[in-house]
Amino acid sequence: YLPAFERVVTQARPATVMAAYNKLNGVYAGQHPWLLTTLLRQEWGFDGVAVSDWGAVNDRIAALKAGLDLQMPGNPADDAKIVQAVRDGSLDEAVVDRSAARVRAMAERWRAEPGGFDADAHHALARELAAECAVLLKNDRAVLPIGPDVRTIAVVGPFATEPRFQGGGSSRVNPTRVDVPLEEIGKLAGERTVTTDPEGADLAIVFAGLADADESEGYDRTTVELPDEQVELIRATAAAARRTAVVLSNGGVVSLEGWHDDVDAVLEGWLLGQAGGGAVADLLFGVTGPSGRLAETIPLRLQDTPAYLNFPGEQGTVRYGEGVMVGYRHYESVGRPVRYPFGHGLTYTSFAVGDLAVEATGDDSARARLTVANTGGRYGKHVVQLYVATAAGPVRRPARELRAFTKVALGPGESTTVTFDLDARAFAYWDVAEGRWLVAPGDYTVQIGENASVIVAEKTVELAGEAVARELTLDSTVGEWFAHPAVGPALMDRLTAGMTEEQRARAADHADLLRMVESLPMHQFLGFLPSPLPEETLTGLMALSRRRG
Fold this sequence. Notes:
Domain Fibronectin type III-like: 382-452
Structural class: alpha/beta
Radius of gyration: 30 Å
Largest sheet: 6 strands, mixed
Organism: Planomonospora alba
Keywords: Hydrolase
Number of helices: 16
GO biological process, one term: carbohydrate metabolic process
Number of strands: 19
GO molecular function, one term: beta-glucosidase activity
Shape: globular
Strand content: 15-25%
CATH topology of the largest domain: Rossmann fold
Oligomer: single chain
CATH architecture of the largest domain: 3-Layer(aba) Sandwich
């Protein structure tokens, strides 16, 4: 989970980072020295303000010492505790001064400038961005964009007039205005008839999704299904209209089962903000082409999700048993069918990729080049997704992992060359023993995906990486001794010294016997040998394991 936060902190350089409510390995996040200081500030270089979630501070003194600068909301009783702790010497005044200086610096840096802002320009930008984010999931018979053959449009569903455009709880903001989908559709409909009766309509557009009460902060949904009344509305409309499109508004993934096959098109809008209604109208009529891609998988069942057996945990504890196999990494690694995979999204034109070339640019880096062409008849945007697949290294790797992506805009018949420079992190795994990212020597397959499930081009590159040999002791297992690249062959030579070629061959034929004792500590294995190895031999082999490079 950390790489996503790392990317934001190190590249976007945010002014603040918020500490969560929960504990991590028994320590509250808001007073966790490793999270707030070792990782966030020392490793990632964060120099802004660490702020608590609302009411998330359990022990203000411990939080200050750990690196939490700002408590939300302020609490006079906790302020008094800070003063008392400084006076009695249990809290270094320099710690308080450090946090106060960070808060003061933030206030001075982001002091509001006079003059206000251009609300119209901001709204226009919001409309543009919303259109980029919506994902066209399904478009059978090319019912979208709405063509000249569509003369009557039925717009149904409560979200058509009262749009759901933002989250609940503390994510709620005050919009400067709100675009109403029905009104925006009417503006672009021209001479077409826009009605609310789907019976016999050329196209019915159903606005469905989740209400504020269905998803908010502080509690979790217990299902991924749409409310029953929404499903009934979609199915009834699809039965009455000639063609049906569904526009969804929801913060988290919802299931499409039970109605997906009844409709012709599905536009997943998510929560598109105050200009979402206008953006949806632009997409429906083709003023803008859809180009969003799924940032999460839409499963067939809640039970298929990787965290199903681990979340929400039991007796106050959640075990992150899925490890790195979260999201699409799980579905692709176990071959689990899904409704729509990570990275899926349709456009109003077509694209083709080709001429993929991959070359190593160092021991742990590579460059990938490919061409992208618009092979359809409309202007559009395509998201090029680069995945890496490998079995290199001592840890279990997902079937593939997204390592780079970019969006290109092309007119009909146009093409362009896309280049990805892949650094070590594109190929690395986290090595627990070393406490750092490592690129293992081996083959890495660079894949270009239409989405996480559909690969359209791939090339394999060999990287020298970094061969890491673990330091061995007599407590190390027999398997670790024999797997060591330098020690393993040397140990086998010592054990077979004096044997004839025939005896060596017989020993090789009984390699399965060695597998039976691989998990034993070496000091136990030595007791099974017919003759002991000299102490100087063991000392020399352990010294050999300490040599790097």
